[in-house]
Each structure stands twice: as structure tokens, then as C-alpha cells.
Specification:
The complex is a heterodimer of chains A (225) and B (77). Chain A has five helices and eleven strands; from the N terminus they run E-H-E-E-H-E-H-E-E-E-E-H-E-E-E-H. By secondary structure, chain A is α/β, with parallel strands linked by helices. In chain A, the strands form two sheets. Chain A has a nine-stranded mixed sheet, with helices on both faces. Chain A has a two-stranded antiparallel sheet with strand order 5-8. The longest helix of chain A has 13 residues. Chain B has a three-stranded antiparallel sheet with strand order 2-1-3, covered by helices on one side. Classes of the chains: A alpha/beta (225), B alpha+beta (77). At the A-B interface, loops of A face helix 1 and helix 2 of B. Chain B: Its EC number is 6.3.5.3.
């Protein structure tokens, strides 16, 4: 059965095409492209991706405007039904602003935009997004962000750590994120937000393929469901 | 009705921009500055019969991110 994915484009998204290319490369099926103003999602989706970029020019707060766009009401409903949702970079910011994920992404502690490969440690290998990695595996994935400094209060941090919801940690903290958190899952495990860009690490010609396993995991989870 | 919404970072939330401004003030020779915190002002012009509940909802749903920010609503006239 074909893998039916959707990639959402907001005004200012700039990694939507990369995301679609990565998903098609791994799944063999081109994702449906969905516009922020669409009132409905296509039927029968297996996977929804919110890409990186600067939706609505980062007005007010990164991701704040996009979180209130028409399509997000549908995405919140889909996530509550259990559809896997991946938010990368600005997509992660949108998911926190939409309250699908805990915490917030603040300005990098060093004030600068960071664009380079970073080392990540895979902390959770049970999730539908990370089952293809080995426990404790160290991978290299690019980051490109100004607002990637993950913040949540200590109680929330203790809870998400205790529940095994930290998917990835920075091996060297590049942006001030609390407890080195680079990617976090929701309580049900079907929503993942992460600042690093796995869709930029699916082709050896672009410097690495450590992102492939994330998409492969999601596709395999669906096949086994 | 003119309404001013003041959004500020919650105490305890690190404010790297505020810290940089603080250091810059010290660099300019201003002594005795304990700290600087950066917030945001949003001026709204709303219908006179807008309820306090509606204003609060605007802040909670969009104007502030209550995970990291506090807000204060001031009616200007």
C-alpha cells in the first residue's frame, strides 16, 4: 500500500520541498502538498510533516501565527486521532505554539543563527519515528535556526524525561536548550518535534544520510500497524 | 477603546537578548544597572463593548505564549 503523506506549506516555509523529496525518496510515493489556508486535510493520511522555514515571517513569535492557521485546526484533530505528525525546525515551533508539544523554542542562547551539522544522541528508539536507530546511537544532522533554545519548566522537563519522551539530545549544546533536548515526543508518541533537519540528511551527496532512518521508521511502523 | 497589552518573559526564563542589552549598557559606562529584560507592547484598538474575558482570551490564545510569558492588559482611555 502506498504511503500517504502530506507536507504543509505556510507562507514563509522554505524546507517544504526538501521534506517532500525526502519522503518520496524513502517511501516511493510523492506526498500531497497542503496549503496553510486549506480547511481540510486529504482523507486517509499516514503521515503529516510540518517543514522548516519562517512561517508568517516569524511575526509575534516563531510559529505563533502558523499555529492558528486554518489547516492547523485539522492537524490538531488528526494528531489527536493518532496520525503521525513530524515538525522540523519551524514545524517544531508551530507544534509547541499549537500546544501539541510541551515547552517553547526561544532565541538561541548565543544570539546567533546556527547553520551546521550537529551531533545528536538518539535517546528513544521505541517511537514510530526512531525505531530504526540503535539505542544511544550518535548521528549527525544539520541544524539551521535562530530560535531553537528549548525551554520548559523543571516539572515539565522531569515529566517528559521520565516518560521517555526525549527523542534526541544534542551531544554538544549549540543553542542553550534545557537538558540538551533537540527533539521531543507528545505523550501518545505520535507527534515529534525536532530542531535538526533529518530531511537534509537523506543523500550522501549532501553530506550524510543519518536522517533516512527516521523516515524509514515511520514507514515501517505503518506497514506493521 | 485603546488597550495596551504588555508581554514579558516569566521570571526565571533566561532572556539572552536582555542580557546582551544589560552588558551593552555596562559597556557604555552606565553603572548600577542590575538587569534588563525585553518584552513586547501590543496596542489594540477594539470596540468599546469588548469584554475583559475577550481581551484575556486574545492574550491566552495568541498575544502571549503562557509557557514562557506573562501578560498585562491596560485600558488606556
Amino acid at each position: 500500500m502506498a504511503f500517504r503523506a502530506a507536507v504543509v506549506t505556510f507562507p514563509g516555509s522554505n524546507c517544504d520541498r526538501d521534506m517532500a523529496v525526502a519522503i518520496e525518496q524513502v517511501s516511493g510515493s510523492a506526498p500531497v502538498r497542503v496549503w496553510h489556508g486549506d480547511a481540510q486535510l486529504p482523507e486517509g493520511l499516514d503521515f503529516i510533516a510540518l517543514p522548516g522555514g519562517f512561517s508568517y515571517g516569524d511575526y509575534l513569535r516563531s510559529g505563533a501565527m502558523a499555529a492558528n492557521s486554518p489547516i492547523m485546526r485539522e492537524i490538531v484533530r488528526a494528531a489527536e486521532r493518532g496520525v503521525p505528525v513530524l515538525g522540523v525546525c519551524n514545524g517544531f515551533q508551530v507544534l509547541t505554539e499549537a500546544r501539541l508539544l510541551p515547552g517553547a523554542l526561544m532565541r538561541n542562547a548565543g544570539q546567533t543563527f546556527i547553520c551546521r551539522n550537529v551531533g545528536l544522541k538518539v535517546e528513544n528508539t521505541q517511537s514510530i519515528f526512531t525505531s530504526g536507530y540503535d539505542a544511544g546511537q550518535e548521528i549527525s544532522i544539520p541544524v539551521a535556526h535562530h530560535d531553537g533554545n528549548f525551554f520548559a519548566d523543571n516539572e515539565t522537563l522531569d515529566r517528559i524525561e521520565g516518560d521517555g519522551r526525549v527523542a534526541f539530545r544534542y551531544m554538544e549544546n549549540c543553542n542553550g536548550s534545557q537538558r540538551d533536548i533537540a527533539g521531543v515526543l507528545n505523550a501518545a508518541g505520535n507527534v515529534l518535534g525536532m530542531m535538526p533537519h533529518p530531511e537534509r540528511a537523506v543523500d550522501a551527496a549532501h553530506g550524510g544520510t543519518d536522517g533516512l532512518a527516521l523516515f524509514e521508521s515511520a514507514i515501517r511502523s505503518l506497514a506493521n500497524a | 477603546m485603546k488597550v495596551r497589552v504588555l508581554v514579558s518573559l516569566k521570571p526565571g526564563v533566561l532572556d539572552p537578548q536582555g542580557r546582551a542589552v544589560h552588558h551593552a549598557l555596562e559597556g557604555l559606562g552606565f553603572s548600577g544597572v542590575e538587569s534588563a529584560r525585553i518584552g513586547r507592547t501590543i496596542d489594540l484598538d477594539v470596540a468599546d463593548d469588548t469584554s475583559d474575558e475577550a481581551l484575556t482570551e486574545m492574550c491566552e490564545k495568541l498575544l502571549a505564549n503562557t509557557v514562557i510569558e506573562n501578560y498585562r492588559i491596560e485600558k488606556l482611555d
